[in-house]
Amino acid sequence: MHAWPASEVPALPGKGRDLRIHDTATGGPLTLDPGPVARIYVCGITPYDATHMGHAATYNAFDLVQRVWLDTKRQVHYVQNVTDVDDPLLERAIRDGHDWTALAERETALFREDMTALRMLPPQHYIGAVEAIPGIVPLVERLRDAGAAYELEGDVYFSVESDPHFGEVSHLDAEAMRLLSAERGGDPERPGKKNPLDPMLWMAAREGEPSWDGASLGQGRPGWHIECVAIALDHLGMGFDVQGGGSDLVFPHHEMGASHAHALTGEHPFAKAYVHAGMVALDGEKMSKSKGNLVFVSTLRREGVDPAAIRLALLAHHYRADWEWTDDVLREAVERLGRWRAAVSRPDGPSADALVDEIREALADDLDAPAALAAVDRWAESQNAGGGTDEGAPGLVSRAVDALLGVAL
Questions:
Q1: Are residues 243 and 356 located together in one domain of the fold?
Q2: Domain limits for position 363
Q3: 38/47 Cα distance (integer angstroms)
Q4: Letter string b/e over residues 72-86, b meaning 16 or more CB atoms within 10 A of that residue's CB
Q5: What are phi and psi of 40, to 5 degrees?
Q6: What CATH code is carried by the domain that includes residue 124?
Q7: What is the pLDDT of residues 329-384, one digit of tens each?
Q8: Is there a domain that residue 369 lies in?
């Protein structure tokens, strides 16, 4: 599966700061010190309805992570998956009378278009769950043969008790885990499971649903969590720098994925940092496909909204915060974009060296994009008031905003 084209990232003078970021597993800040190549895995979409503002906010956060690392003169090895076979996708295809593969391909193509328009840097490896199945099957067999998994009526489940580190990502109690498992694709009430929280690794073929040859597992398809683990281990290995996604993935997805990897390799941790973006609401409720309260990037683009303004609307909120999309949020972003473009269109202006340092410091401090925007606002206000004679300043501001914030002026 191919990703989307990369926009050029301008080079800036000097060097950026190492990223200090909030780690869900420890509950506090962690200064990341990757080697020459920083490794990041971000969970991708289930392509039955893409791309709403919640998606955009999440991928914007991890785009900033990449940009901070690139500014430190590191390379970035970024991997993202597509859950291109899953119950919600199959249910939507049946509801709308579409072939599920055609639906997945159409929505994935739209997602690529949206990511391109928003100038999100693409992953080096963009992997669909279906194409990963040949690598998933041996992992499930290994877990089963090692006693970390068991069969139940043809399905194969992972035993959470096989991982002594289970629970160290989310730090939830058993009851909270059970409730979230039931809400987010698990089946804690199924009779015969060793532990209600045990997640499915391989689902035996169901009538009318797609299935693949699972060798000794029989016909079926993989569970959700093992897909990401197989892709991450294949392309990044254990102990990569950042596992990312929305805060709704902390449990069960990232908790279970970490346990799968620990049981498979005997190593810990799966990722050095678990980083999660907040949820975006509309009309007082979290944007959700099931609720239908969605604002789509593609709809805004068709209505003529500049993608740079959409990106500024995302950047106006700290990535970990839960926030609400409103018409005012977009209006303010459009106005800010106009002020910034007017400021950099002049032939000279106030020196921008200190501004570049401010943006770097803000982003290195747990991706504080609102503080970075405020710094650019101050420079633009001074510039639009007519102060400054540095001929290189407008160009430097334009390059810095592009390189570090992903906004083309």
A1: no
A2: 297-405
A3: 27
A4: bebebbbbbbbbbbb
A5: -140, 140
A6: 3.40.50.620
A7: 999 999 999 999 999 999 999 999 999 999 999 999 999 999 999 999 999 999 98
A8: yes
